[in-house]
Amino acid sequence: MTIKLIVGLGNPGVKYVATRHNVGAWYIKSLVERYQKTLKEESKFYGYTSHLTLCNQDIWLLVPTTFMNLSGKAVVAIASFYHIEPNDILIAHDELNLLPGSARLKLGGGHGGHNGIKNIINLLGRNSKFNRLRIGIGHPGNKDKVINFVLSKPSNAEYQLIHSAIDKAVRCTELLVIKDNIKAMNSLHTPHS
Q: Is 115 annotated as a binding residue?
């Protein structure tokens, strides 16, 4: 049981690229930069893909080009093609219940109102447990403001905090890949490490 697929959720198009809902895609782009890889569009996987070898483990990277609420279509397409089980998948996504600057790892659980996660759960199967990298974006304070909040750009200060959490997550990725979840969680969840 190791991570074989890492997916960064977001919405396609220039209009959304800098919005809070796309922080999962930002994480994949940071990974690609760190390991000097490139993302290329792969229509059969409904997204942009790349390939890494970390700790002797082959890993596929995916940024879906479907809209957020159809993310599962891309995840299922690539996971089926490469015979990747749900518990070998890591989904990186925005998390309203964490402040900017925080990132947390989690295995399984509900969708918490996140439409991308909801669609992935529906298509992988309700009992499927996949890993999540929850990247904090904060909450607007009112549930009626959530849609506009996630589809808008963070302030410069929030942007810096979100990127520092993503940088930390990128540095923890090798620990995740070898399933040293305890060490990865300790490293990721400790402030200023």
A: yes
Identify whether 83 is a catalytic site residue.
no
67-103 pLDDT tens trace: 999 999 999 999 999 999 999 999 999 999 999 999 9
16 annotated as belonging to a binding site for a ligand? yes
What are 123's two structure tokens? 């298509």
pLDDT tens for residues 116-142? 999 999 999 888 899 999 999 999 999
| Alpha-carbon span 177 to 140, nearest angstrom | 33
Class of domain 5-189: alpha beta
Residue 47, beta-bridge partner list: 42, 64
127 is in an annotated binding site: no
Q: Which of 21, 93, 114, 163 is catalytic?
A: 21
Note the pTM of the prediction, 2 decimals: 0.92
Phi, psi of 176 (to 5 degrees): -65, -45
Domain ranges of the chain: 5-189
CA angle 55, 60, 62 (to 5 degrees): 140
- 27 marked among binding-site residues: no
